[in-house]
Amino acid sequence: MSDAPVLVTGGAGFIGSHLVDALLAQGRSVRVLDNLSMGKRSNLPMDNPRLQLLEGDVADAALVSEALSGCQAVAHLAAVASVQASVDDPVSTHQSNFVGTLNVCEAMREQGVKRVLFASSAAVYGNNGEGQAIDEDTPKAPLTPYAADKLASEHYLDFYRRQHGLQPAVFRFFNIFGPRQDPSSPYSGVISIFTQRAQQGLPITVFGDGEQTRDFFYVADLVELLLQALLAPQVVSGAVNVGWNQATSLNQLLAEIGGLFGGLPPVSHQAPRPGDIRHSRADNGRLRSSYRLPPATPLRKGLQGLLGLD
Ligand code: NAD
Ligand code: UD2
């Protein structure tokens, strides 16, 4: 890799800021483009001279082009990550979640930058594959504007690959967790909500019986994969699931959190969320054959990391 900066869109957010830290730790220069709608300056080491923050929107084509200028590669993570926000406001979230991707592709074509990482989502599978490990060939069934924008972005990246030689490394994240995940919305990641409420002694709400399962993946493990994808001589063809093929129920999660705090605040149950997926688990065969997987950070260790107890 050259000394030229890596552009990280959404770099002030949860996942992006961990990637920025890792790139800076490797001695690289990083440019972040983030509109700070969810991201925060405080997530970034602003005093590091190799870091530059451009505050602005990926929907602004001219700004994306300026941000990319002189960069060697892009990690395109900027998006309105809340599925519910896309349901409530499909027009505005489309600007961030789809037009932003198109602007990145066009700027790369114009400037001859090839390598781009893209943060897609398990949401592209909708309810298909429920109850079994979902592999990448499972038929896609985007049920929300968020999922449709992610899937459309994948298709456009593939078009730019075939037509213009872009090298997209596309990841479909399952449930990522760790420090800096924002718990402030009811639709934030369940681990961020439960741990914050346990820490503050506030009641916890479980939607449904708590036996629904998710495939939780610690953010530091994800960052190792993203770094490999940036540096690999060739990109893996096709999208790659990011999960451990391991199901954890919310009840198991609560037991772990209770173990760390020596107890839990009151836990109540409400009706399941409409459309909630019962079981979501990644078939990660392609991930295993394409990348050097770090040892999985166990849930308890990840929770300790999140809570600053490690
Ligand atoms: P996040 O909200 O912390 O990060 C997203 C960042 O993008 C924020 O800093 C936000 O300010 C920025 N942003 C949003 N719209 C923007 C715009 N129009 N222009 C510039 N910046 C903008 O969320 P995250 O969990 O770190 O998600 C990172 C990426 O991973 C997103 O693309 C998200 O869809 C994807 N993803 C996350 C998960 C997960 O489990 N966290 C799962 C699947 C996919
Ligand atoms: C995740 C992603 C979403 C999308 C989707 C793909 C997050 C935050 N969301 O949604 O972006 O990629 O996967 O399928 O990563 N829950 C409670 N109590 C709470 C909050 C949540 O019981 O206070 C339940 C919720 O009903 C669900 C489970 O916890 O059954 C996980 O919820 P989530 O919002 O963390 O993630 P998910 O899998 O619905």
UniProtKB/TrEMBL annotation:
The NAD-dependent epimerase/dehydratase domain, residue ranges: 6-243
Annotated region described as Disordered, given as residue ranges: 268-294
Gene3D superfamilies on file: NAD(P)-binding Rossmann-like Domain, UDP-galactose 4-epimerase, domain 1
Highest taxon of source: Bacteria
Regions crossing the membrane: none
SUPFAM superfamilies per UniProt: NAD(P)-binding Rossmann-fold domains
Pathway named in the protein's UniProt entry: Bacterial outer membrane biogenesis; LPS O-antigen biosynthesis
One Pfam family here: Epimerase
InterPro entries (UniProt xref): Epimerase_deHydtase (IPR001509), NAD(P)-bd_dom_sf (IPR036291)
Biased composition (Basic and acidic residues): 275-286
Protein family according to the UniProt entry: Belongs to the NAD(P)-dependent epimerase/dehydratase family.
Protein name: NAD-dependent epimerase/dehydratase family protein
